[in-house]
Amino acid sequence: MTRESRAAIGAIGVAAAYATLLGVAHLVPRYDCLVFPFVAWLVLRLLRGLRGRHLALPLVAVGVILAAGVVTHLWTTGHEGRTAALLGFAPYSDAAGYYSDAHRLVHGLKFESSSKRPLYPALFGALLRFLGRDSRVVIGLFTLLGGASVGYATYETTRAHGERAGLVVFLVTAFWERRYAGFIATENGGFPLGILAFGLLLRAAEAKDERPREAEIALGAATLALSMGLLARAGPMFVPPMIVLWALWAFPKGARARAAGLAVLAGVVAAVLNTLLTRRIAGGALFGDFPPILYGMLHGEDFTEIKIRHPEIDALPPEVRPGAVLRQAWADVVAQPSLAVTGPGRALLHFFVGPHGLFSFVWTNPDDKALEDGAVVRAILDKGGARALLAHVVGMIGLRGLANAIAMGALGGAFVLSFLVGLAHAVRARKNHAHYTLALACTGGVLLSTPFTPGWITEGCQVQTTTIALLALVPALLAARARGAPRPRPPEPIVTRRLSALALASIGLATFLVAVAIAWPQPTPAAPCAERTKLHLDPSMRVELAQRRTLGPDLDSLSANLAYLGRRNPELARSVTALARPGVVAELVYDGCDGRGHLAFGPPDALPAGEGGWVDALVEEQVEPYVMWVARPAATPPP
């Protein structure tokens, strides 16, 4: 057995052991920050000195295994520490809208809530259409893509700058992936595209002087992938223009115009594809949530501020509301010019030090519920001081939970600090390697975008999705500085060409699948909707409830999630609590009469195991329309 084989087996074995501890034995939490950093270090240590496919394939396998462990943990415990997927599979809030609209696409209907970001739900719906309407298979496919993206980003960084830099990117991207693995979220569409763009940008920067034509194509493919990723999960939209400016400055004189032109063309193609899709299947304004966010940023409030100050605008039709909000924002700035300074300044400050700012997903700590109730915390401090508060936290989350929280805070703070120091280092070392100027250009695009994605309104882990590897490159280059200036040797040309082809082919295939699904929708059977309805069952997203079970979602884990959910979504919590009891089945369904997805509860005969397709049903609506009680037509629903 060769040294490369032994190293690969060792790294994959370490990842598999950790995934088993997480997903099967449940000996480490999903948001573990005590054991995982050591696992990441050990994987990179075992693969030290390997190159090419001997390094790339094990890292991709490790990323997939770790992501699978996270999803296995979700499906075998029924929770992720919060409530992002009730019972381990049932989405709510935006995710429920994406699930519902994916099924609407399958049946030829226009999107509702997904109109603001249509790319991911459109692809989710197309995959549902061609993979037997099995949601877990589609979620599993996105999990595979996310895990492979972690491994690929680590490979490209390690190849160019060594194991220290690779470890930084591995930690950052793996922490991001565990945050969203298993969820129906647009982040799972933007992340793989952003990672693909990351690898192509690194290679374009390395090859631009010796093989400019190859670098130009790589830059164009990277900009296309990045633009599509930012359209799938809206974020720092000024990054692609900054990449164009970087190409005009960094490429050789004879190649600058072509490189920048290809990057601009790629952005235009992405915008055209998104516009065509939006006009075909979306029923609302694209990115219609951004104007209210911008207005809230200017006034230091959240996105509901426009409704409070100007309810007449909220009463306008959805298609004209965004424009009216922007006009009102401009009128407010004209009346009070200081808003144009204080709002963006506050957003920039929150990006670096806010709880939802840069690398905030590292601090994804479900145990911080011990400190969520401000009134309780103040009362404890007033009565017993810091010691009493510490006892309260330990009593709720235990010593291991406290140690995990401290580790999260320390590592998250270290990433932010190293990012700031890394920016200064990149400025000093900008002539040593093109990756420094690339990192500075992309960071500039992110910072220019912060007023449109303020941390107190939008979560940083969401808006950083597509650019997260580019942001991680800054501290990664700082970690690699001990090696001196990175070698400017360009990467393998055949691999770079294949990566460019992969970017174009993957986006083309996704577009083709969505187009076919739109052109040939599945029929919805007729039903006497006044008396009963037709439900399409999703048996892969089904569980028969028990009070407690060894593996799988149960009422105990559901109760823990609802305790948190009830403070933010009381109607949903009340509706679920009223219906969830031992022996009842919970399943995701699509209602052919109202054209929406629902979380359905009912007796086993109404939601039979292993049966997909359409069934006749009687339904009883709840306080929360997303939740319903289902019975067979011959049965009588409960009072």
Can you give me a brief rundown of this structure?
With 639 residues, this protein is of the alpha+beta class. The chain is built from 23 helices and 5 strands. The chain has helices at residues 3-23, 36-46, 53-77, 94-106, 119-130, 135-161, 163-180, 187-207, 212-232, 239-250, 256-281, 290-298, 305-309, 311-314, 321-335, 339-353, 374-428, 434-449, 460-463, 468-479, 493-519, 555-565, 570-579; strands at 533-544, 585-591, 596-602, 613-621, 627-631.
Structure description:
The chain has 639 residues and is an alpha+beta fold. Helices cover 61% and strands 6% of the residues. It contains 23 helices and five strands. The protein has helices at residues 3-23, 36-46, 53-77, 94-106, 119-130, 135-161, 163-180, 187-207, 212-232, 239-250, 256-281, 290-298, 305-309, 311-314, 321-335, 339-353, 374-428, 434-449, 460-463, 468-479, 493-519, 555-565, 570-579, and strands at 533-544, 585-591, 596-602, 613-621, 627-631. Strands 1-2-3-5-4 form a five-stranded mixed beta barrel. A hairpin with a 5-residue loop joins strand 4 (613-621) and strand 5. Helix 1 packs antiparallel against helix 2 and helix 9 (212-232) packs parallel to helix 21. It starts with a helix and ends in an 8-residue tail after the last strand. 52% of the residues are buried. Mean pLDDT is 84; it is low at 635-639.
